[in-house]
Amino acid sequence: MKNTLAVLVLSSFFVFTACKKNETAETSTEKNENKKAEEFVIDSVIVKDSTKVTDSLKLTYTSKLLVFPGIKDKSLLDSIYFQNNKIKDFSKAGLQAYLENEKNNYFSSVKNDNKDWASDIAYAQDWYSSSHMNLISNTNGYLHIQYTGSGYEGGAHDNYGFSERIFDLKNNKKLELKDITSTPKAKLEAMLMKNIDNINSGTMDGDGSVKNSEMLLVEKIPASNNFYFDDKNLYFHYSPYEIAAFAAGDITIPISWEELKGTLNAEFKERMKIK
């Protein structure tokens, strides 16, 4: 009886010890993951300046670039700064110098291109160029950056646009649609057309909201690479004039994970914890 009791006590000890080890290992893994997230440093550089071309014409240049001191992979950095392919130095000082040079080039080009008639502008005008890189999220190793650009150089209104890009920090690459879903583009386009009014642009007329579908300029909505996602949906973002009239503004169309059920990439589904 004593031997049996001793065996039971010893067995319980080993089970308890194993559980504690598992809990410690899980806690250690969570701490390491949190530490990695904390160690992912993001900085930024901004240049904002203005100059007068004539008494009536003012130019303003604003630009912001994010800085990623922890990313060393050149192909990934080239993809992150895809709109600025002249960048060779990805350090904070290098990016600051790049923006200063871009500002000077912008001022010079506008002045030279308009020198013959700029003095004839009869009323005050403010022309500008603005571009920004904005960090939207960094979740499960997926870095979402939104690139915005806008400008005005005369005309009825200014112009603006958006570019959404997701970077897979685990695999050092820009995420493509095929990395998320195997759904054929034709089927995605049908879903986009079906869901176009699910998120309204907010444009109003005298009778209330104007539906996005009523301002379409295309017969089918392309499943472009301008996408992002959260835990509920895959979103496609369209700039003014891309699929609809300027009055519609920029349009975002969601496709739920439920609609894409059975077509999601296994690694993506696991990392995003999609059920």
Automatic annotation (TrEMBL):
Gene3D superfamilies associated with the record: Fervidobacterium nodosum Rt17-B1 like, Heat-shock cognate protein, ATPase
Domain DUF3298: 185-258
First and last residue of the signal peptide: 1-20
Superkingdom of this protein's organism: Bacteria
Keywords: Signal
Full protein name: DUF3298 domain-containing protein
Listed InterPro entries: DUF3298 (IPR021729), PdaC/RsiV-like_sf (IPR037126)
